[in-house]
Structures are given as C-alpha cells and as structure tokens.
Amino acid sequence: MPTIIQTNRIYNNLGYWFLIFILLAFIGFYKTYFSALLGPHPSVVHLHFACMALWMGLVIVQPLLIKYKKISVHRTLGKLSYLIMPLVLITSAMMIKASYFAYKLRVEAKVAEGMATFTEAEILHLSAFEMGLPVFYIIWLAIFFLLAIYRRKDRIPHSRYILAAALTFMGPTVDRIFVFWFETFLLWGFIPIEYFAYTLINVILIFFLFLDKGNPKGQKALGISLAIYLIGQLLYATVRETDPWENMITTLMNF
Predict the structure, then answer these.
(1) DSSP codes of every residue in 192-238
(2) What pTM does this model have?
(3) How far apart are CA 50 and CA 55, in angstroms?
(4) pLDDT tens digits, residue range 217-248?
(5) Which CB contacts under 8 angstroms, 24+ apart, belong to 6-11?
(6) Quick check: 205 pLDDT over 60?
(7) Rounded distance, CA 23 to CA 176, Å?
(8) Are the C-beta atoms of residues 35 and 51 closer than 8 Å to each other?
C-alpha cells in the first residue's frame, strides 16, 4: 500500500498523465474539427474549443506547479480558473443548444423527405433524449469544480475534486473515437458506447480510492465524487425517456 507521501507524489505527477487527454481530444475531434479547421464552423465552436483548451491546460499545469513548488503561480492560475470555468460552462450550454436544434432539424428533414415518420411530439422527445449525455457531463463538471473551489484551502480534497472534474474529458473524447473512427454507437452490438467512458471513470476513481487508503480526507472526496458519478449514470440510464426530462430540456433549449 502506498504511503501518503507516495500518494502525494502520484497526484503531483497527474499533469503528465493528463497529457493523454490532449491525444484523446486530437483523435476524437480530428475528423469533425481539426481536419476541417479552416472550413465553415459556427463561431461558438471555436470559442468553446478555446475555452476547453485553456481549461485542459490548467488541469495539466496546476499539479506540475505543485510538484515543482511554484505555489504562487499555482494560486494565480487557480484564480484565473474563476473566469475560464464560467466560459467553459456557458459555451458548453451554447453548444448543447446548437446541437439540439441541429438534431431536431435533421429529423424534421428526414420526415419531410419521407425517410422517417415521426410526429412533432416524437421529434421533441428524441431531441431531448439525444441531449442527455452532454447535459450530464456539463452538470458533473460544474459540481466538481464548485466542490474543488469550496475546498481550495485544503489541498487533499481540492486535488481529488479536480481529478473528478478532469475525468469529464473522458466522455466527449472517447465516445467520439468510437463513433468517428470505429463507426459504432454500440459495443458488442448492445452496449451504448458512453458506458465505456463511464466505466473508465469509475475504475479510475476506485483505483485512486485504493491509493488513498489510510487518508480519510482523500477517500471522502473520492467517495463523494464516485457517488456523484454513479448517481448521474443511473439517472442518465433512467430519466431521459421520461416526460419531465423532455419538458425540462425543451424549456431550456427554447429559453
């Protein structure tokens, strides 16, 4: 079992491991964004990418600043996140809204062309259902960032909540790799691909729970994070087919 000192070293080196997210993002978004970077894109796409890139940069750099004892720089950049994270959340919400209406228009076009036979009510239901994944990830990101800021004066829980927040990168990148490189929405023909990213997130948090054995503060923060993810995953699997979900998403998208 690693000692607390060894565990702290692992957290201080997380910046190096987070570099994997750059590779995943490049692969996952290559076909739809990077390969067509000079092509026509709504302005919000570039703005959202810039905000996410800044946030990812902070996630990578911050633990390394702790590792190399650049505490004052770490704190300054931490304050910068108070500006960057709201921009990430706002542009994420804008992207979700754009995706909602783009999906809705595609389904309506198929109906108009005789390729599908959905009613207007069914189109609204399908559109709300499709927005489930990004909505849950943006909620997770907001929750974990707020928890990290709330515990910012206590390094141990703060770093654990930042880890949980960073793991929200997993879904948008890994899912797109399956869709655009392997052209599948299902694993083994019946498991939705998003559950693969969910499993990775859960396994990583359980692994760090093991590393924090004997460290109550770390285990509590990680346990809370895992519980939040599991509750969200359960809700994701159950509420998207319900009328309250449809009503909530439809209202938000037309706000």
Answers:
(1) ETHHHHHHHHHHHHHHHHHHTTT-HHHHHHHHHHHHHHHHHHHHHHH
(2) 0.93
(3) 9
(4) 999 999 999 999 999 999 999 999 999 999 99
(5) 7/211, 7/212, 7/215, 7/218, 10/211, 11/63, 11/66, 11/159, 11/163
(6) yes
(7) 13
(8) no
